[in-house]
User: Fold this.
Amino acid sequence: MSSNSIRTDFPILATEVRGKPLVYLDNAATTQKPQCVIDAISHYYETQNSNVHRAAHYLADLATTAVESSRDKLAEFINAPAREEVIFTRGTTESINLIAGCLDSHLQPGDQILISHAEHHANIVPWQMLAARTGAQLIACNLLDSGDLDLDDFAQKLGPTTKLVAIGHVSNALGTLNPVRDIVQMAKAEGNKDTLVLLDGAQAVGHLSVDVQDLGCDFYAFSGHKMFGPTGIGVVWGRKALLEAMPPWQGGGEMIRTVSITESTYNELPYKYEAGTPNMAGIVGLGAAVDYLNTLPRDELQAQEDKLIAWTLSQLQQVPGIRLVGEPRQRIGAISFVHNEGHPHDLGTLLDQQGIAVRTGHHCAMPLMDHLKLPGTVRASFCLYNQQDDAQRFIDALHKAVTFL
Assistant:
């Protein structure tokens, strides 16, 4: 199956921008949606819309069945040992905040939380807040010039006081595919068995098959909108024993079993962490995205994408004034670069005028940009529906754009 045949599944890719066909290379920010996902959301609102779990009428039963069916699909999608370990959130950011908001008792003054300099703000700020509440220290491992994690520095900073490691599976800014299985094993080596590991999978799930049991992590967070599903929906997976031991994050409907004026008891998993009315249509749409991905030869399509990125990298090196930012050993999805003379925003605007959608700025990774001594980069990010024509038009447009800088 080719990316060309897949494109017809995504209606927005037929859009014209200023009289030119859209070339969408902003997939690390959000992916476009196939028609089947759009239809699933419409079908839910047209035929099933009701609040879930709380009523004995026909529509409520349909809605509950649809939502819980999606939970089953997500559990299978990431090979979760149990469906009740799949918690629905608004996205990766809320998923990480949920875990960070429930780990106060796991930390004490002097303990360490270990991240990297390449993390998205959503995998930094919640840990800063947790450290401030508990007296723990947040530290970051260094990066190599290539953009890869410095595993020697990571190993050196690991120690008996490291109680939490939080690392991105794939860098949103550089596309670096981190050796997360090795990182988990290092974090949980002899002497650190109570170290918890959270992986930010936002940039991975749309490209790679994810098996949380194989990875060995304790928590895995991701968003629907980066895997061809709706916005406003995401998942955090956690080990059942940990989720049962942790306190609830938010209070209100759904997460309770009994309530009195003076005290409450809490619901079982997964509802203990799903306070309030969930995003039912979003959950249904995410289930449809999983169904869609399961119909595709994902390994074959990823191999095609890897070739497309390799070709694009080779061509970028021939564009006057362009400098690649990060050349990791393994790359997924994203390419970052700068021009010696022009600001990233100017270059992004010149590309947009030719129908090319890219992202410019710090990509919610300001510590990384500080480390690189850059104000930001231009990021072109690919996915399974991008094809050779997209890459060629991007390179041609870039050659033209740099003549104006």
